[in-house]
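Predict the holo structure. Ligand: coenzyme A.
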Amino acid sequence: MNPPWQRLEAEGWRLSDDPARLDRHQVWRWLSLESAWSRGRSQAAVNTSLDQSLTVGVYDPAGRQRGVARCVTDRVAVAFIDDVHVDADHRGKGVGRWLVCGLLRHPQVRDIPQFTLVTDEAHAHYAASGFTSLAKIERWMQWRRDTGSAYTPDPWPRSAG
Ligand SMILES: CC(C)(COP(=O)(O)OP(=O)(O)OC[C@H]1O[C@@H](n2cnc3c(N)ncnc32)[C@H](O)[C@@H]1OP(=O)(O)O)[C@@H](O)C(=O)NCCC(=O)NCCS
C-alpha cells in the first residue's frame, strides 16, 4: 500500500525530527491560539514541551512548517502522543498520517510495544494509523490535580516567599 504522503514527498515535502528546523513561533500559534487542549500555553512552555519530547515536523517544499506532533517518551517503555496539529490550509492530504506514522515508526521508539493518546474527536484520524480504543480500560487510572490533591500530602519542602 502506498503511503498517503507519497505525493507530497514527491513534490518535495519532508518529514523531519530535527529540533533546529522547528518553527517554534508557528507551533506556539497553533497550540496556544488554535487548539482547545493547549489554549493559552506560553511560548516558553511550548519550547520546553518540544525539547523534552521526540518531536517531528512536516515541511513544505519551501521549508515552511505545516504540521507538528510529539511523543512524550523515555525511549524504553512509555510513549504518549500529544499536540498533533496540521496547518488548517493543508489538512486532508496526508500530513497528519505522516506525522503520526513518523512517530510510531521512529528508530528511537521502535521497541516500545504500546503508544497511547487522548483525543476528543479525531478518533478516525488515529484509527487510520492502527489505533484502537483502550483494550482493558479497567487497568488504567488517572490522577487529577483538581481532585487528587486533597488526598496527597506534599513531601517537598517549600522555601519561604
Ligand atoms: C486531526 C489532524 C491532525 C488531521 O490531520 P490531516 O493532515 O488533515 O489528516 P490526514 O490528511 O493525514 O488524514 C488521515 C485520515 O484521518 C481522517 N481525519 C483527518 N482529520 C480528522 C478529524 N479531525 N477527525 C476525524 N478524522 C479525521 C481523514 O479523513 C483521513 O482518513 P482517510 O485516510 O480514511 O481519508 C488535523 O485535522 C488537525 O490538525 N486538526 C486540528 C488539531 C487536532 O484536532 N489535532 C488532533 C488532536 S488529538
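The domain at 6-132 is CATH 3.40.630.30 (Aminopeptidase). The first strand starts at residue 14 and ends at 16.
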